[in-house]
Amino acid sequence: MSFELQFRYRRRWVRWLVAGILVLALSAGGLTWLHGQRDGNAAPSPAPITATAPTPTPTVGRVANGCLGGSAITAHTVLTALQQAELDDVGAAEFAATVYRWLGSDESLPPADEVPVVLGAITAPDATETVAGMADRVEEPGLTDERQGPPSSTEGGGYYIESSSGDEVVVSVLLTIPDMKDQAGNVMATATTFTLDRSSGEWQLKDNSADRRISDLKEIAQPFSGGC
Q1: Using a CB cutoff of 8 Å and minimum separation of 24, what contacts does 94-97 make?
Q2: 89-103 and 115-122 helices, crossing angle to 10°
Q3: Residue 78: its H or E element
Q4: Of 41, 12, 63, which is closest to residue 157 (Cα–Cα)?
Q5: What is residue 134's three-state secondary structure?
Q6: How many helices, marked H, and strands, marked E, lie in the chain?
């Protein structure tokens, strides 16, 4: 079965999704195959940060939970994580991972009725057009009533705090798609970078980009403490 072929013809409207917000960055660094050593439940081992990499803000004594809000991939999970996430760097990573799992992949989009509920709750007042314009764009024909296709997972994934200052945290998240593998058994991975604001007393989504390449993120990402 060719996943490349599926990406070519299923839900062409999702190109708006890819261009507009958060989902798989199918450009350079957006989607790739993980090496065989990340098969199954094995967590990646972060390599030392190079001199040219941004310096993450350390959070002592706690590692991000990859299952914040619960293991299900629903709007309720995201809203639960919004209430549970602490307002520190680790909390930002936990919340971002839950949002990213919900957003899914080109083959596993959120149900139509969940999109306005989630986006209405997590979009920052000063969000960029990438985020703020999402609700209108997803009304195009093609959004299904039920989630379909293989889910994304924090198992074998990780996170990296790009920066943290004042009310804003920028965090990159690496997820895997365990059900999508090549002939050698290598698992597909996806990554995105979230800009989150905590000034309101809970995490709000301000921006999203595909600036961080997966090949880099695999080397510096901190594995989640638990995977969903």
Answers
A1: 94/64, 94/65, 94/66, 94/68, 95/68, 95/196, 95/203, 96/159, 96/171, 96/173, 96/194, 96/196, 97/64, 97/66, 97/68, 97/154, 97/157, 97/159, 97/173, 97/175, 97/224
A2: 160
A3: helix 75-84
A4: 41
A5: helix
A6: 8, 6
Query: How do beta strands 153-165 and 168-181 pair?
Result: antiparallel
Q: Is 218 helix (H, G, I), strand (E, B) or coil?
A: helix
The amino acid at 43: A
CB-count burial class (<10 Å; 0-12, 13-18, 19+) for 123: middle
Per-residue tens of pLDDT for the chain, all 228 residues: 333 323 332 343 333 443 344 333 333 344 555 544 344 444 443 433 333 333 344 445 789 999 999 999 999 999 999 999 999 999 999 999 999 999 887 667 788 889 889 999 999 999 998 888 776 665 554 567 777 778 899 999 999 999 999 999 999 999 999 988 878 888 999 999 999 999 999 999 999 998 889 999 999 999 999 889
Alpha-carbon gap, residue 169 to 162, rounded angstroms: 8
On whether the CB atoms of residues 40 and 162 are closer than 8 A, the answer is: no
Task: Give the helix/strand (H/E) hosting 122.
Answer: helix 115-122
- Coil/strand/helix, residue 216: helix
